[in-house]
Each structure stands twice: as C-alpha cells, then as structure tokens.
Specification:
Structural class: mainly alpha
Largest sheet: none
Order of helices and strands: HHHHHHHHHHH
Strand content: under 5%
Distance between the termini: 55 Å
CATH class of the largest domain: Mainly Alpha
Oligomer: single chain
CATH superfamily of the largest domain: Cytochrome Bc1 Complex, Chain C
Number of helices: 11
Bound molecules: protoporphyrin IX containing FE
CATH topology of the largest domain: Cytochrome Bc1 Complex, Chain C
Shape: globular
Helix content: 55-70%
Number of domains: 2
Length: 242
C-alpha cells in the first residue's frame, strides 16, 4: 500500500512544482537540474579546479550580492528622499537624525557603494591574472568593462544626491574635467547638467540616472554576464596552472 508521503509526491499539485522523483542516476540528476528554475542556475557539471576558493575569491558573486543589497537599501532611501534643491539636503539630515535606523540605512548604501567599486576592480584583476579574458570569454570581458563603467557611473551620480557642499563641488569639478575631453567634452557636460552649472536640472538628471537608468542597465548586464559564463563553458579553470 502506498504511504502518505508517496501519495503526496505523486499528486498532481506536487508534480506541477517538482517534476521528478528523487534521482538515483547521473542522467536523472542532470534532468532535475535542467528542469528546475532554481537548480538550473547551477551547472550540471563543473570544473573541479574552479571550486578552489582562491580561484575566484568569490569576487564576482560578492559584487552581485553588493548590487542586490544596494538596490534594496536604495529603494528604502527613496521612501524618504525628494530630489529637489529645496528638500534633498534636509531629507538626508532628517533621515539620519529622526528616522529609526536611518543612519544605518544611509551608511549601508554608502559603504556598499564604496565596497562595490573596490570589489569589482579586484574581480577584474582576478579575471586578468587567471587569463579568463581570453577566447571564448572575450565578449564577457567587454560586458564586464561596461559593468565597471556603469558601477562608476552609479557612484558618480549618487554623489550629487545628498546635495551638500561636498556633492555640489565634487560634481562641479567632475563635470568640468569631463568638459576638457576633445569635441564631445562640452556637449557631454551640458547634457549631464541640463544647463551651464550644477542646479535643479542636474539633480533631476542624476537622480533619474541613479535610480532607474544605471541600475536597470546593470541588472540586465549582470544577467547577460552570468549567462555568458555558463555558455562559455563555466569558469575558465582550464587556464589555471597547478
Ligand atoms: C557589476 C559588475 C560585475 C559583476 C556583478 C560580475 C559578476 C561575475 C560573476 C558572478 C562571475 C562568475 C564568478 C566569479 O568569477 O567570481 C564573473 C565572471 C567573469 N567576469 Fe565578471 N562581474 C562584474 C564585472 C566584471 C568586470 C569589470 C570584468 C572585466 C572587465 C568582468 C569579467 C568577467 C569574466 C571574463 C568572467 C569569466 C571568468 C572565468 O570564466 O573564469 N566582470 N563575473
């Protein structure tokens, strides 16, 4: 007689979630991995050497985790922040002094951003030193370079949002340096600032870039980046010298 557990695992509802029973051979194990949306994120087979903690130092995954944490703390900050020159600075002071855990929230976002820049550079260095940029991974290296630029862009645009003296002058100096680039320099500065100097138009543009455009692009590119790691045959552990 079928046990209670058997009747559950054979039920239609159960099988609509879990399409297989307990796999007991390599083929079934692969099938379970490829037909489950959560399991399929893990490759069926991996290179043993790539399991060594010192191969990647977990830097790519750490960057991804930092991005997710920045997205969450960023959305929470948006509950309190209004991007206008009259209110932005005051909002940040109120957040830090009157909102429960507001100071912690701001610091998590700020330090997370600093850490993400550091970790992404370390990740790029590890990819370089393990030779993982070589074919067939050259496309993923390019995706990585764009991710690096976007990460720096997120930091730069976020810098203006507290609207304090540091923000104002950092963006004034940063965009002035950009304007020295040949041909595109001055138009690029005007497009960034929405006018001749840092003011409300710049704050609006930086805010839109910081909370929508850049994080959206980073999220899409991380998905592409991780998918490419899989399609290029997993981590390039073959290139590691023993
Ligand atoms: C937001 C930024 C980034 C995120 C979230 C990210 C994430 C990841 C993850 C999770 C992996 C697999 C595990 C690991 O290597 O730790 C990976 C691999 C890789 N990343 Fe990144 N990455 C980023 C930026 C970059 C940059 C700046 C470069 C280079 C310019 C780069 C190039 C690569 C390459 C070539 C691989 C394949 C490595 C291999 O096969 O061994 N990534 N990335």
């Amino acid at each position: 007689m079928a046990s209670f557990a058997d009747s559950i695992t054979r039920s239609r509802v159960w099988r609509s979630f879990f399409r297989h029973g307990m796999p007991d051979n390599p083929l079934d194990r692969s099938l379970v991995m490829t037909t489950n949306v959560f399991f399929h994120l893990h490759p069926v087979k991996i290179n043993l050497k790539s399991l060594r903690a010192t191969y990647t130092f977990g830097l790519g995954v750490l960057t991804t985790i930092l991005f997710v944490s920045l997205a969450i703390t960023g959305v929470l900050l948006m509950f309190y922040y209004v991007p206008t020159v009259e209110r932005a600075y005051g909002n940040i002071i109120t957040l830090q002094t009157q909102v429960p855990f507001g100071q912690l929230l701001r610091n998590l976002h700020r330090w997370g951003a600093h850490l993400m820049v550091l970790v992404v550079v370390l990740h790029m260095m590890r990819v370089f030193f393990t030779g993982a940029y070589k074919p067939p991974r050259e496309f993923n290296w390019i995706v990585g370079v764009v991710l690096l630029i976007l990460t720096l862009g997120a930091s730069f645009t976020g810098y203006l949002l507290p609207w304090d003296q540091l923000s104002f002058w950092a963006i004034t100096v940063g965009t002035s340096i950009a304007s020295y680039a040949p041909v595109i320099g001055t138009p690029a500065r005007t497009i960034m600032l929405g006018g001749p100097e840092v003011g409300q138009e710049a704050l609006t543009r930086f805010y839109a870039l910081h909370v929508m455009v850049i994080p959206g692009a980073i999220a899409l590119l991380i998905a592409l980046h991780l998918w490419r790691v899989r399609k290029d045959g997993g981590l390039a552990a073959n290139d590691v010298q023993d």
